[in-house]
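[step 3/7] fold_predict: job queued, chain A
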Amino acid sequence: MNWIVVYDNELNSDGLAQIVGERHTHIKSILKKGVGETIQVVIPNSGNFLFYIQSTTEKITVIQKGNTIPDVLNPLRIQTFFSLPRPQTGKKLLHLAGAYGVETIYFYTTETKNKEYWTSPVYHKDTVSYLETGLSQTGNSRLPSLVMEKTLSWKQFLKSWKGNVFILDREGRDFILPLTEVKKTAKDFLFVFGPESGWKMEDILFFQESGFSMMSLGKINLRTEFAYSALLHQLFKS
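[step 4/7] structure written:
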């Protein structure tokens, strides 16, 4: 990790934080930082900062908040929807969402067989930690919002969306979205990724009847995390 993630509630009134566990080990053993040196810190939803190492022991590093650093990354504030993926895929999607600073990531059950995935720790106690790995890699300070819906109809959710809905499918039209449009109304854009087996014909008909745009990232089948990475890269580089 290039950045250490520290939350506001970990700081005392003097701007000091006691860092333990994996973050302490990373500072001590990987970054090899000692007393008096600085580290780069992300405070989620607050910004980027330099912190000074005040003291360190075998188990604890004490750091103090210093100067603000100009934001190193402008969050890509789009909305993204996924048919609940396998947990290993979910980890990668959460990491990418954190790395790029998307606005919201939605997980919905679109197929009966997907429901078993909800029992994984990825969608319980470990969820936020995978978002944090994205922040610590890129320096993005926006922690995406998470919606994990287990019961409500995913089709009804899409129908009720007030902005633009883009269905990702290899048979859709080529993906072209002007940067100026993304910047102006990014939070209104919902990009929808389906199951890796592809959309069913009844789903395609539903999309057509609802007037949703179907867009393609290419004419080959991509694993969900690769398709997500391709989308984020195209939007971010524009």
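[step 5/7] annotate
The first strand starts at residue 4 and ends at 5.
Residues 166 and 213 are 5 Å apart (CA to CA).
exit 0
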